[in-house]
Write a structure and sequence with these properties.
CATH topology of chain B: Elongation Factor Tu (Ef-tu), domain 3
Structural class of chain B: mainly beta
Radius of gyration of chain A: 17 Å
Number of helices of chain B: 2
Largest sheet of chain A: 6 strands, mixed
Order of helices and strands of chain B: EEEEHHEEEE
Helix content of chain B: 10-25%
Number of strands of chain B: 8
CATH class of chain B: Mainly Beta
Oligomer: heterodimer
Chain lengths: ~130, ~150
């Protein structure tokens, strides 16, 4: 899933942004994406099992995979490609060729500030029956 | 006096609904019950007397049924092709309903068992894009009285 997302972002051929295979770990207490503006990081998928339907003979479960993408820009002047990149990342939830049994695909995009940096987090959730 | 609640949860005294056709081997155990309601509704004959300030009643006959919701499971719903011809296991819920087959049923409340005969009815399988597993209500319309053991 992470690889598919990385391939998708690389194929966007962004001029001002770079994509890295590195995980967005912290180095000396600072996340890598904060040190490297305009570099897109894709995190490892998180998995959660939740009850889809309770039945007396045992539960029917959902598996929820959550993947987060991080990138940072100078908040004083956003790159002209920023809006286009966000739109393309929104579209990714539907075009990724993941297992068709994922019946729910969601994407949320949030931003926050760290000094003069705008941190954009894209969170994908893919849900299928366990 | 000790209070003996009957607890039913997944894996703990979970109720099992078993359906059979008289004289034919091949039980149909419904494995995916979501909820169960055992209905025993008595009708009353009601009358008034001039010497009574309230109506008087006497219980007459009852209408009995078992209502449940289940997650549709292929073998249970459509039947097991390898089972004995004419059995509940072979016909499955949809076959028993379509053929209006009279069935025997039993359901347990912990170690107590309620049983009787009746007909499968009320199937209405439904699914939605956001809830992609078929579920259906199921009613056993009971013919006659329950047996409690």
């Amino acid at each position: 899933m992470r690889e598919l997302l990385l391939d998708y972002i690389k194929a966007l051929k962004l001029k001002q942004y770079q994509v890295t295979n590195e995980y967005p770990f912290s180095n000396s207490g600072t996340a890598l994406y904060l040190k490297n503006p305009k570099k897109i990081y894709v995190d490892n998928p998180q998995q959660q099992v939740e009850i889809f339907a309770s039945v007396f003979s045992g539960a029917i479960d959902n598996e929820v995979y959550t993947v987060r993408v991080y990138f940072v820009n100078d908040a004083k002047q956003l790159p002209t490609e920023y809006a286009e990149l966000v739109d393309s990342l929104k579209t990714a939830k539907d075009v990724l060729e993941i297992d068709p049994s994922f019946f729910r695909r969601t994407c949320s995009i949030t931003t926050e500030y760290e000094n003069d940096l705008l941190i954009t987090t894209v969170e994908y959730q893919f849900t299928k029956l366990a | 006096m000790a209070t003996n609640y009957i607890q039913s949860a997944a894996g703990v005294n979970n109720p099992v609904l078993t359906i059979t056709v008289s004289g034919i081997t091949g039980d149909l155990d419904i494995p995916t019950l979501q909820d169960v309601t055992i209905n025993n509704a008595n009708d009353q004959f009601t009358w008034s007397q001039l010497n009574e300030s309230a109506k008087l009643q006497v219980a007459t006959t009852s209408t009995n049924s078992i209502s449940t919701n289940i997650v549709v499971e292929e073998l249970t719903f459509f039947g097991n092709a390898a089972a004995t011809a004419g059995s509940a296991a072979k016909l499955g819920l949809i076959g028993l309903s379509k053929n209006k087959t009279k069935v025997n049923f039993e359901i347990n409340l912990d170690d107590k068992v309620i049983s009787g005969v009746g007909y499968i009815t009320g199937l209405a399988p439904t699914v939605s894009a956001d809830s992609p597993v078929w579920v259906t209500p199921l009613t056993i319309s009971v013919s006659g009285e329950y047996t409690v053991a």
